[in-house]
Amino acid sequence: MKKSFIVSGVVVAVAAALPFFLGNFTLRSATDILIFAILASSWNIIGGYTGYASFGNIVFFGLGAYAAAICMNNLGLGFFPALLLSGLVGAAFGYLTGLPILRLRGHYFAIATLGLAEATKALVQNLGITEGNSGMYLPIPSLGIDASYRFFYYTSLGVLVILLLATWLLLRSKLGYGLIAIREDEDAANSVGINTTLFKSTAFSLSGLFSGFAGAIYAYQQGFIKPEPVFTVASTVKMIVMAVFGGIGSLWGPTIGAVIIEVLSNVLSAHFLVIHTIFFGTIVILVILFAPKGVSDIFRGRRKVGVAYFLENIRKNKV
Amino acid sequence: MKTKTLSRCLSLVLTVSAVLLFAGPGFAAKDVIKLGCATSFTGHLSRTGKLYVDSYKFAVDKVNEAGGVKVGGKNYKLELVFYDDKSEPTESSRLVEKLIAEDKVDFLLGPYSSGVTIPDSIVAQRYRVPMIEGGGASSKIFSRGNKYIFGTLPRAEDYFTSTLEFLKEQKPLAKKIAIVYADDKFDLTVGEGTKAQAPKMGFDIVLFEKYAEGASDFSSILTKIKSAGAEAVLVAGHTGESINFVQQAKELNVTPYLLSLTVGPTEADFRKALGKDADYIYGVASWSPQMNFPGTIFKNTQTFVEEFKKKFGYDPDYHNASAIADIAIYKDAIEYAGTLDRQKVRDAIAKTNLDTIYGKVRFLDNGQIKGTSVVLQNLNGNIFQVYPNMGHNAVFPMPAWNKR
Amino acid sequence: MFTQVLINGLLKGGLYALMAMGMSLIWGVMNIINIAHGSFIMLGAYATYWLFSQFGVDPFVSLPLSMAMMFFLGWLVQKYLINFVVQADIFITLLLTFGIELLINNLALLFWTADVRKVNVSYGAGNFQLLGTTVPAVRLAAFVLALLISAILFYVMNRSRLGRSIRATSQELDAAKLAGVKVGNIYAITFGIGTALAAAAGTLWSILFPIDPTMGGILTLKSFVVTIIGGLGTMLGPLIGGLILGVVEAVGTNWLGSTYENLISFSIFLLVLIFMPKGILGGRD
Predict the structure, then answer these.
(1) H, E, C per residue of C133-170
(2) Together in a domain, B263 and B296
(3) B248 shares its domain with B337
(4) Minimum distance, in Å, between the CA of residue A304 and any CA atom of chain C
(5) What pLDDT does B11 receive?
(6) In chain B, which residues have their Cβ closer than 8 Å to the Cβ of C245?
(7) Which of A225, B66, B83, C141 would you call most buried, defined as having the most Cβ atoms within 10 angstroms of its Cβ?
(8) Given a cut of 60, is residue C125 above it in pLDDT?
(9) CB–CB of B42 and C259 under 8 A?
(10) Domain ranges of chain A
(11) Where are the domains positioned within chain C?
(12) What phi and psi values does residue A284 have, to the nearest 5 degrees?
C-alpha cells in the first residue's frame, strides 16, 4: 500500500510540474483531460463501485456549469464560492433525484438517468434565469493569459486529487463496504440491514458533487456556455467508456482511461482530419467486445496478455 | 504489484511524451499574413458557412493576384488557415485558440452565426487578436466591451424595420403580425427588436412565439398563426428551419399576405430545396445583387456578382458580400496602419471608412457596422430587391398555395 | 383551433408509434436497448432519399426495399456484433449499441456530409380539409401505416411459427435452447425486423422533414418515451404510447410554447418510469 501511495504521489508531482513545460494550447487540452478524468472518476463511484450504471451523469456537469454562471454573473460571486456552490447543487440534485430513481434497477435505472439528463437540459432551455437556449456569459478572469491557463489546470488537478483521495477513503469506510455489497448482491445487503437507499443516494450525490465542480471549472474557462454542449449525451458515453477502458472499480482506472483516450483522440484528429471521427465509435466497440474489464485488468497481475485473453472475454459473453 | 507500478509509470511517460509531441510550435513563413478562421464546414450551419469560405478564398486570391497587401514597402501575401468547427460553439472556440497559439495566425476571421461568434470572440479578446466577422448580427456579441471584435452584419434588432416600412406601403394594409423566432442569440435579438418597433409603427402583434433552434416541426406554431389570423408573418431563424417552415406552411395551408424569414430566402440553396414553393417568400438582407457600389478588391458590385457567379456557379447573396468586405477591411486597415502590430491594426479597423462592393463600411463604437437592411422577394426562381424599390415590384399579397 | 391541435397530435403520434415499434420489439424480446435505433431510422431515411434522388423511385414504392436493406443490416449487426455481448452486464450491451450509433453516424457524416437533404415529392405538402381542420396527407399516411404495421406485427408475433419461436426465446431462454431453437439466429432475425421497422419510419420522416446524419439522436430518445409509456413486450404498446405522446406534446406546446416540447416528453418519461414502470399495457419487467 505504501508503494502505491508513493507512485501516486510521483504522478501528482509530475502532473503539477507540467505547466512549466507546456504551451498554453496544450495546457488547455491537458485541463480538458483532467476535467474528463474528474467526470470518469465521479461516475466510477456510482457506476463502478455501486454497480448502478448511470447514463445521465452529465446532468451534474451541466448543472454545475450553469450554477457557476448564475453565481458569477447574476450574483456577482467570486470563482471559488461559485465553485463550491456548483458542487453543492450537483450533490443536492444527486441526492434528491437519486431517492426516486435509484429504486429502479438495471436497464430502467440507466434510461431513467438518461431521461433525467434530457429533462434537465430541456428545463434549462426554457428558464429565464439560464437565458434559455441562447447561452450565458461568465466574467473574464482578471489574470493574465498564462496565469489563467495555469489557474484552470491547477484547479482541475486539485479537484481530481481531492476526488481520488475521497474515493480512497470512501472505500475504507462503512459506506464504501456497503456500496460494494450493494453491487454484489443488493437484496442480501438489504437483508443484512444496510440502508441501501441512503447509501445509494449518497454515492449518487458524491458523484454529483465532483461532476458539479468539473462543470464550474469548464464554464469559467469557456467564458460562454450553452445547454447542448454541457448536457450532451455524448459526453456521458465518453466518461463511461473512459472508466471502462481504464478499469471500473479501480481508483486510478478512470483517470488512466481518460488520459489515454483523450490523447489518442487529439493526436488522431490532428493527423487524420477526416477519419478521426470514426475512431471513437470503433474504440468503444472494440473495447466492449474484447476488453470490457478495461486496461487495468490487463495489467493487474497477468503474466502474459495474449490473444487468448481477449477471445476468452468474447466466449464468456456471447450467446 | 510490480506490474501495476510499472504500468502506471509507463502510461505516465507515454502521456507526457504524447502531450509534448503535439505541443509542437507553428512557424510563420516570411512575407505572409495569416488569417485564421474556424467556421462551419459541416453541421447544421454548414449551408451558409460554405458561402463565407467561398468568398474568403475568392477575395484573398484576388488580393494576392493584384500584388497583395503593402506593409512597410513590402508586398505581403494573404494566407487563409481554415478549421471545421462543425457548427459547434465549443469546438469553434477551441479551434480559434489553436489558430492563435499553434498556427500563429496574425488576425482572425469570424465563424458563421452569432451563437458561435460569441465564444470565438471571447478567445480573440483574451489573446488580444482582432477578429472581423461577417456572420454574426446579434448585438450581444458587441455588448460586452470587447474591443477586438468587429462585425459586418447590421444590428439584428433592425432586421425587420424595412419590412415593416414596406408593409405600410402595401395594399391591403396588414395590421396583424406574428413574430416567430428561434431561441438562439441572433434570433432572440431580432424577435425582441421587432417586438419593440412594430407597435410604434402601428402594428398589432397577434403572436409572439419562440421555437427551439434547429426545430423541424412547426405545426404547433403554424396552427396558432392561422388561428390568430396573422396577416404578416415574420420568422427569425436559420436556413434549415426556414426551409421546413415554408414547407409546413404549405402543408397546413397557411397563407398570410407576407411571409418573411431572416435567413434562407436569399440563398440559392433555399430556392433549390423548395423549388416553386420558394416563390413569393420574402427575405431580409444587408445587401442585394441589384445594388451597385464601387469596391477595392472588385471594380464594383455588378462585376463582383458576375465574376462570382462565373467562378462558383451560384448567385452570391449578402453573406458572400459581407465576407468580401471583411477581407477588404483587413487589407485597408493593415495598409493604413503600416504594420502587422495587432493593436495598431485593431485601431485602424475601428477607424474604417471604406467603399466596398458590400457598401460603405463604418463601425459603431461597439464594433458593429453601421448599416440597414433591404427587403427582397423570391420570384420565378430568382431573388429581387423590392424595397427600397430598384425596379422590381413585389407581388403582394402572397397567392394562396393551392391557387398557383 | 383545438380540433386542429388534436389532429396534429394524433398524426404525429402515429409517426412516433411507427418509430418506436422497432425499439420496443428488440427491447421486449431480447432485453436489449438499442441506442443506435435512431441511426437505423436515419439510414432508412437516407436509403429513401438516394433511391428517390438518383433513380426517381417514389418513397412509398421504395419502402419495402429500404426495409429489406435495413433488415439485412440489422441482422448482420446482431449476428456478428451484439450477439457477442448479450450475456454480459446490461450496461455493456448499452455501451456497445452506443458505440454502434457513434460509428454509423460518423460514417454517414463522412460519406454524405452534414448537408441537410430533403425528399421533395410533389405530393409532399398535399392536404385536405376535414371538419374545419387541415389534414396533411403524408402525415395521415404515416398514421395509417403505423396502424397497419401494428396489426401485422400483432398477427405475426401471436400466430406465426416465427413469432412463437421469438416469444419462446424471450420468455424462457434455456428451455428454448434445449428445444433446439437456434437462439443466435432468432435474435438476429428479431433485430433485423426491428431495424426494418425503423427504416419504415425513416422513409416517412424523410418525406415530411429534412434529414441529416445526426437526426437519429432525439428520435431514439422519443422512442424510449413511447416504449415506456406503452409498456414493453406488447405489440400494441408503441401505438398507445405514440398516440399519447403525440397528443400530449401537441396540446402542451400549444399551451406553453413549442420550446417546451422536450421538457414535456421527458417529464412524462420520468414520471412513468418512477410511478408506473410497466407502462400502460403492462408487460415484461
Answers:
(1) EEEEHHHHHHHHHHHHHHHHHHHHHHHCHHHHHHHHHH
(2) no
(3) no
(4) 24
(5) 54
(6) none
(7) A225
(8) yes
(9) no
(10) 19-232
(11) 17-216
(12) -60, -50
C109 CB near a chain A CB, below 8 Å?
Answer: yes
Q: Please, are residues C265 and C245 in contact by the beta-carbon 8 Å criterion?
A: yes
pLDDT of residue B3: 47
Reported ipTM: the value is 0.89
Identify the CATH number of the domain in which residue B211 sits: 3.40.50.2300
User: Considering its fold, how many domains does chain B have in total?
Assistant: 2
H-state helical runs in B66-181: 89-101, 114-127, 161-169
Report whether pLDDT(B273) > 60. Answer: yes
Is the pLDDT score of B222 beyond 80?
A: yes
Residue of chain B with shortest Cα separation from C11: B219
- Between C115, C250, C258, which is nearest B46 by CB? C115
DSSP 8-state secondary structure symbol assigned to residue A19: G
Q: Domain check: are B211 and B229 in the same one?
A: yes
> Which chains lie within 8 Å of chain A at 3 or more CB pairs, if any?
B, C
- B141 and B85 part of one domain: yes
Q: How far is CA C221 from CA C38, C100, C214, in A?
A: 8, 16, 13
Does B240 fall in a domain? Answer: yes
Q: Is C268 on the interface with A (CB under 8 A)?
A: no
Name the residue facing A112 among C101, C260, C270 (closest C-beta). C270
Helix (H, G, I), strand (E, B) or coil at A52: coil
CB contact under 8 A, B216 and C136: no
Residues B100, B141 within the same domain: yes
Which of B86, B209, B219 shows the shortest C-beta gap to C257?
Answer: B209
State which residues form the domain around B146: 29-154+291-361
The verdict on B233 and B89 lying in the same domain is no
* Rounded Cα–Cα distance for residues B283 and B279 (Å): 11
Q: Are residues B121 and B94 in the same domain?
A: yes
Point out the residue among B3, B183, B188 whose CB comes nearest to the CB of A299. Answer: B3
Mutate to test the interface with A, among C78, C95, C259 (most CBs of A within 10 A): C95
Grid cell 472588385 — which residue? B298
Contacts of A239 in chain C (CB under 8 A): none
Nearest CB to B47 within list C116, C258, C261: C116
List the beta strands (DSSP E) in B313-358.
Answer: 353-356
| Inter-chain CB proximity B227 and C4 less than 8 Å | yes
- Whether residues B253 and C127 touch (CB distance < 8 A) is answered with yes
